[in-house]
Amino acid sequence: MDFTTYYKNYPDSEGRFGKHGGAILPPELVPAFQEIYEAYETICHSARFISELRRIRKEFQGRPTPVYHCERLSRELGMCQIYLKREDLNHTGAHKLNHCMGEGLLAKYMGKKRLIAETGAGQHGVALATAAAFFGLECEIHMGEVDIVKQAPNVTRMKILGAKVVPVSRGLKTLKEAVDSAFDSYMKSYKDSIYCIGSAVGPHPFPMMVRDFQMCVGIEAREQFVEMTGNLPDAIAACVGGGSNSAGMFAGFLADPVDIYGVEPMGTGTALGQHAASMTYGTFGTLHGFQSYVLQHDNGETAPVYSIASGLDYPAVGPEHAFFSDLGRVRYVSAGDEEAVDA
Questions:
Q1: Is 95 part of the annotated catalytic residue set?
Q2: Cis peptide bond upstream of 205, omega within 30
Q3: How many CA atoms lie within 13 A of 250 on its CB side?
Q4: Distance, CA of 69 to CA of 82 (rounded, Å)
Q5: Gyration radius (Cα) of the chain, Å
């Protein structure tokens, strides 16, 4: 495949990355998602929209975030030179605001009044609550009760920013159930709301939109690394749950002779329910309106998942990542809880 033209061709007109992706929706939601797609396709090429988003990123988010050379860590390991793209210095403390401000701006242009979303670790919830406050919109965040306890400071931040936090008590009370709950709420209020998915998952056009809004991460990182070192990196790596930060990071280097690694959460073991490594142990299936590799039982029922990282305990992976794996362009590996904490 010619990766220099990849982003002009994928997803295709049906929202597919190879066999992955699509928009598998109940009939009553097809017009709503078509409206979002048509609005995005029109607005994303608008000079006014692009100019406003760039201004927001520079003046409100504090972009570009820096690339930092970890000199002492590099010396200690003795095998390579390690650089970090400091998305923790993006306003609200993570990459999530990149797509939340884009989705909020889209909602504003579409005349919507409310932003609805799920959150796991709470970073997406905080970012979306921030976007809603910025644009003067209502905000409704669905969060599993387990994650509410684990991520209490972020729950407080969401409420301070004016968001309504909806506890989810069904199932495992974590990220998948929060997505289910948020989707149910959106189905009841789609005429005046927009569902702001928190990762590069869900029905088309969301995997494409989230990726596009996150591409600034990889584009900046490439330019900064070359400026700092005079060369491209040998390899880049990012964690992969649904895959928003990694989709953005990989975009800057996809056409370059650079090895790319995605790292999945292996949790505490290899049995279903002990991890959330969808690419490693998942099979092709359907979840939340899209098709990809899903952790599921033989009967097709979605399996329980686990990770010490609340934002990574999702039982599927974004369709573009599944496609990259099929193509062999990205190598997906895994790390357990202890490995990640020790690192």
A1: yes
A2: yes
A3: 28
A4: 6
A5: 19
Of 44, 69, 95, 100, catalytic = 95
Where do the domains of the chain lie, and which CATH numbers do they carry?
A: 25-57+95-207 (3.40.50.1100), 64-92+214-342 (3.40.50.1100)
Active site residue 124: no
CA distances for 325 relative to 65, 221, 246, angstroms: 28, 22, 13
DSSP 307: -
Nearby residues of 120 by Cβ (< 8 Å), 6 or more positions away: 143, 144, 147, 174, 175, 178, 198, 241, 310, 311, 312, 313, 314
User: Please, are residues 261 and 236 in contact by the beta-carbon 8 Å criterion?
Assistant: yes
Residue 48, both tokens: 């006014």
Q: Which of 20, 44, 69, 70 is catalytic?
A: 70
Residue labelled with tokens 């292996």:
266
Query: pLDDT tens digits, the chain, 343 residues: what are they?
Result: 999 999 999 999 999 999 999 999 999 899 999 999 999 999 999 999 999 999 999 999 999 999 999 999 999 999 899 999 999 999 999 999 999 999 999 999 999 999 999 998 899 999 999 999 999 999 999 999 999 999 999 999 999 999 999 999 998 898 889 989 998 999 899 999 999 988 999 999 999 999 999 999 999 999 999 999 999 999 999 999 999 999 999 999 999 999 999 999 999 999 999 999 999 999 999 999 999 999 999 999 999 999 999 889 899 999 999 999 999 999 999 999 999 999 8
Reading the block at residue 314, the tokens are 């999702």
